Structures are given as C-alpha cells and as structure tokens.
Amino acid sequence: MSIQVLDKDTVNKIAAGEVIERPMAVVKELLENAIDAGASSVTVEIKDGGKSLIRVTDNGSGINSEDIKLAFMPHATSKIKQLQDLLSISTLGFRGEALASIASVSQLEMLTKTRNSFTGSRYVIEGGTEKSFTEAGCPDGTTFIVHNLFYNTPARLKFLKTSQTEAGYISSIVEHMALSHPDISFRFINQNQPRLYTSGNGNLKDVVYNIFGKDIASNLLETNAAKESCRISGFIGKPVISRGNRGCINYFVNGRYIKSNIINHAIEEAYSGYMMNHKYPFVVLDFKTDPGLIDINVHPQKMEIRFTNEKELYRDIYNVVSETLKHKELIPEVTFDKDKGHDSGKNKTAELNQAEKEVILRPPSPEETSYLFGKGSINTESKKDEKKEEIQLRETAAYNAHNIKQGTLFETDIMSPQAGKDIKIIGQVFSTYWILQYGDSMFIADQHAAHEKVLYEKFMKQIENNQPFTQMLNPPVVASLSMAEQQVLEENASIFEKLGYIIENFGGKEYMLSGVPAQLPDIATKELFLEIIDGLIDNKTSITPETLLSHVASMSCKAAVKGGNSMAEPQAHELLKELMSLENPYNCPHGRPVLVKITKRELEKKFKRIL
C-alpha cells in the first residue's frame, strides 16, 4: 500500500474533528472570540440544538476587512506570535484553529465591522470554500451565522444526540461563560424562546440568581483571599444546598472554564465534614494565577490545564473553602455526645448537612408521625454516620457471600399467616433493631431496611399497574431549576408522572410541585425531587426500566424511617405485618438483609448450656 499526502480539504475536516466535536464546541469557540474581542454584550441563538442554526452576535472590536480571509486560514491568530507567548497567554483563544475548523464543516456567514470603519464586511464560506466577500451595512462587532453544521461530514452528524440534548450542552457552556464573566451581558435564545439573560453589571451573585434561582442565591458565602498560589474569589454554597452530582461545582482559572481533579478534590475535601457522603456542594470560584504557572496547551478544546504548583494550589483551595465554611450560621446551638473510647455507650453522631440537622433537631409534627407509622410517637435521638453505614454495607455484602447458613431463613414458616399471630415482639435495641421471638428462633429486624422494602414494593406495584397514588400538597412547593434541570424534567416528564408527581411550570425557571408520590413523607419534598433530577442528569443514556428502579429504590430509602429513631411497638407490629406479606421480605432494594435469625440452640451453645 503506497503512502500519500492527504489533500488540504481532508486534513481540515480531520483537524476539525478535534476542535468541533458537537454544536456546543462551535458556541464555545465563538464566545471565547467575542470575549477576547472586548465585547460587553453577546447573544447566542440556536435552532435544532445548533445543528441547523447557530448565531453568535457580539459588540466587540470587529475584524478589519483585510484580515478577514486570513482569519479563516488554519493556525491564524492575533493572540500569540511565537512559542514563548504561551507562557504569558491571557486570552481565552490562542490556537488559531476555530474559524478554519468551523468553516470546513458548515455553511458559515460572517458580518463584521470595526468601530473606525464606515461600512462592514460580509463573508460567506461553505465547507472551507469561499463563496462571497462583499461590503455590508452592520453594527460594530461581529456576527457569525452557522448553518447546517456537519452537512458534509455525515458520519459526525449521525453521532450527535437529540436536539434537546445538544441544546442542553450549549446552555451549559453559555452559563459557564456568564458565571466566569459577570461584567458581560449574555443572552441565550433556543427555538425562538429566550432562556437566559444576564445584565452584565459585574455582580456575580446576580448571575447566580439568573441561572440557578433564589434558593441557591440566598444560601451563598462569599470568599475573597490572596494566597501564595493564586487569588481565590467567588461564592461557595452553604451545605444546605448540597446536590447529588458535581454539576454545581463551577470554577475558572483566569476566566477560563476548566475541569481539574486537583481542584475538585480540594473543594470536596473541604466540605467533607459538613456534607453527607456522595453529596456535592455548590461553588462558583475564580482562580487568578500567574500564566507562567499553568499550561493550557494540552488539548485543542482547552478544557484541561496542567499546574506546576499542584500541592500549593490544593492546600490553598482547601484552606480557603474550609475557613469560609467556619461560619456561625452553620453551627447549630446543640451539642452531640461523642464516642470517646471503646467503653463509651454514647452514639457517635454523623456530620450532617444543614437541612438534615434542622429536620433531626426539631421534633416531628403529629402529621409526620401519623403519616409514617400511624398513631404513636417517634423519639429522634441520633443519625447514623454515613461513612460507618458504607462500611456496614460492605460487611453485609461479605456476609451474604460467605454465610452458608443464610438459606435457613427461607425454610422457616415465619411468613405464614399463623406466624403473624404467634410472633412476639420482645423489644427494640439501639433505637434501630427489633427483636422478635417465634418458635425456637429469635429474629432481629432492621426497621430502616424493613420500612424501605415495604415502601419500595408499594411504589413498584403502582408503577406496574400504571396507578400512581398522589398526595396533593397544600401549599404547593416551588423549585427553581437551571436550564439543564429544566431540560431533564421536560425529557422525562413521563417518569415523574409514573412516580406520582404533578409538576407545572410556574413561569421562567420556577416549577410548582402540587402533588408527590403518596408514600413520601411531607418533609424534604423539594430535596427528594431535586435528587431524582440530579440522578437523571448523571445518567448518560436514555431512561430504562433499570434506571427507573434505581430512582424508586432511592426514593424508598429517603422516605423510610431511619436507624436511631425510636418507634412505638404498635407501629413496629404494623410495619412487620406489612413486611411479612411481601413475596421477598428478606432484603431491602439495595441488597441489605432485613432479618437475621438466631436459633435457641445457637444461643445455648454460646452460653455453654449445650456442647
């Protein structure tokens, strides 16, 4: 097979694949150019997720007519002149690949005018081939109109996702640009519908409000600190607004949105004492650092950065976030007993986020009590440590794999109707486990796992029968959703309907929950709803029955009575009665055992009554 040099057109299309992988990349590159051109106002308009139309208009410096054709040549840039300039780069763009790449895979039209020119210029280029270059009347700045992206590379077009999903990617990059440049006014229009507008007044908190809503904007802590590695400024969220994924961790290095494991780890470690396991904070932080300490020329998409001072950066970020969190409003006016040693009988209390502390510290209302367990009282005393529970789950998994006697549970007749009358409830230990006596055996039931299993089965039966039971809320609960969250909600409206939710748009980014699944308690309603949305955002593929089951299991776990909550005996009896009526009461939806059996013979052997 002979070796040959590829033609220019093929080379450009291959190179475009690295820079322009989807419509979002086009918007990102054009927004970076607009910011570098000194624009104070930028408008992004898309149709069909950017596949049929992308229009980006700015009021920046514009391009001189004699430089227009040169700007569409590969590796043509005004940002740097030589290799050494990369060590002090302060602009977002610098590679000179964007316009050539975009033009090679689309039908592109550009209108531009500098402030000192009487007229502007109109340049049309399709598939990398120039079509026209004329004078035109237009305002100061530059407008790019990109039609039919990937029209000449059908393989790339075929692998794009739905228009809604691609629009979600674009909305995300516009939000990041607005957060990193609060002094610039951004407007985003999707399918002729305005979706985002920021004033450009330089107030970052206003931008946070416009994107994420009042719930988050009202729970922010400001930080501004000069450290050895960088200057850190912006806002971090109080633990009360923790989320189920990293989608709300936003940070920028010298105004550039990036992704960094080092920064992620430093932020999450700083929050570890304030937040439950597998929960993530909200942050919007800007790091100003010496350009000579970073390498941004790692990948054509410019999303990765290498740091020469990683240890110092990690330390400074961790310290700044930690110090900001040491805020008097986050310290509850109550003390918990700590486990000082092996002989102490006191329970070790978990580090909880603010919302959970508020729920635990106040006594439950009569409505909550009766709704969960019927008549009776609940004495809320403590909360399991999340890390400890994770260890217990792992130990349980090992137990299930190695305990060869576990099968004996299925041989007993404890599930028979007669057994329900003969079972004796002896009592409760550790405010978590119920001791039952039946025949010559003792059973220990985990109240959380039991309640979780009962709720799960109820949910599943409703879903299978397409008959969700809905509890109406009075008054309704209003939640503020970001554009990404709104998109997920719209795409999965049928999922929420199957679960028993009644959701209506309340105007703008506000959504009203007027009905929720009937098995859920009337506490933490909004938090559970947002957690399901977070789970759907994390899901990279379409919703399947399996992923729906995981959401039902999660809802059941959140709604179930927790370990450490004392329960009256009549409530426990009713719960166990429901448990025994299930086809498979032996394990909770996450696989943990619900019941453990200890025979009379085993006890007698322990006490040396028999050998």
Explain what this protein looks like in three dimensions.
Helix 6 (163-180) runs antiparallel to helix 7. The strands form six sheets. An eight-stranded mixed beta sheet has the order 5-4-3-6-2-1-7-8, with helices on one face. The longest helix is centred in the N-terminal third of the chain and has 18 residues, at 163-180. It is α+β, with helices and mostly antiparallel strands and 611 residues long.
Could you name the key traits of this structure?
alpha+beta, elongated, 611 residues, eight-stranded mixed beta sheet
SSE layout:
Layout: H1 8-19, H2 23-36, E1 41-47, E2 53-58, H3 68-71, H4 98-104, E3 107-113, E4 120-126, E5 129-136, E6 141-147, H5 154-158, H6 163-180, E7 185-190, E8 193-197, H7 204-212, H8 214-217, E9 220-226, E10 231-237, E11 249-253, E12 256-257, H9 261-271, E13 283-288, E14 294-295, E15 306-307, H10 310-325, H11 354-361, H12 366-373, E16 378-380, H13 386-402, H14 417-422, E17 424-429, E18 433-438, E19 441-446, H15 447-464, E20 470-480, H16 483-491, H17 493-499, E21 502-505, E22 510-517, H18 525-538, H19 545-559, E23 565-567, H20 569-580, E24 595-599, H21 600-606
Parallel strand pairs: 1-7, 11-13
Antiparallel strand pairs: 1-2, 2-6, 3-4, 3-6, 4-5, 7-8, 9-10, 10-13, 11-12, 14-15, 16-23, 17-18, 18-19, 19-24, 20-22, 21-22
